[in-house]
Each structure stands twice: as structure tokens, then as C-alpha cells.
Design goal:
Strand content: under 5%
Low-confidence stretches: none
Largest sheet: none
Number of domains: 1
Shape: elongated
Number of helices: 4
Mean pLDDT: 87
Number of strands: 0
Structural class: mainly alpha
Distance between the termini: 54 Å
């Protein structure tokens, strides 16, 4: 099926079903690690922050704690 035919079929659906199609397409893209288009890409500031965090991790990987450890420390500190 061509992209045009597929788009026509999706456009013919009611809005609530179009939303379900959009959710499913996003799920498939995430599942198969297909990158999103540029309009959904990270901003330059977000990209810079990710690069900064990754560089900090690479500089001192032994200083990283797991999510479980963070939860335990938070519970212990705040009595949650």
C-alpha cells in the first residue's frame, strides 16, 4: 500500500481512531528504535544537557547509583 493510500485511509477515520493510530505508530517507532522526525527531535539546549550528563558519567562512571539505590536513599532520608 502506498503512503498516499495509507494516509487517505487514516484521514477517513474518526478523530478518536486517528489518535489511536498515532499512538500505535509511536509505539512501533519506539519498539523498533526508529528515530522521530526533526520536528519531534530534542532542542539544541536539550541535546547539550544530554551531552553534558553523558560526559559527566563517562568521566566518573563509578559515582553513578541505580534507581533502586536512589529510591532507598530517598526513603531513608525522608521516611517515605
Amino acid at each position: 500500500m502506498s503512503t498516499v493510500a495509507l494516509t487517505d485511509r487514516i484521514t477517513a477515520l474518526p478523530a478518536d481512531l486517528q489518535a489511536q493510530v498515532a499512538d500505535f505508530v509511536e509505539f512501533l517507532m519506539l519498539k523498533h528504535r526508529i528515530p522521530f522526525r526533526d520536528e519531534e527531535a530534542l532542542s539544541p539546549a536539550q541535546q547539550a544537557e544530554l551531552h553534558r550528563i553523558w560526559a559527566a558519567y563517562e568521566a566518573a562512571p563509578d559515582e553513578v547509583i541505580s534507581v533502586d539505590m536512589l529510591q532507598e536513599q530517598t526513603k531513608a532520608k525522608y521516611g517515605l
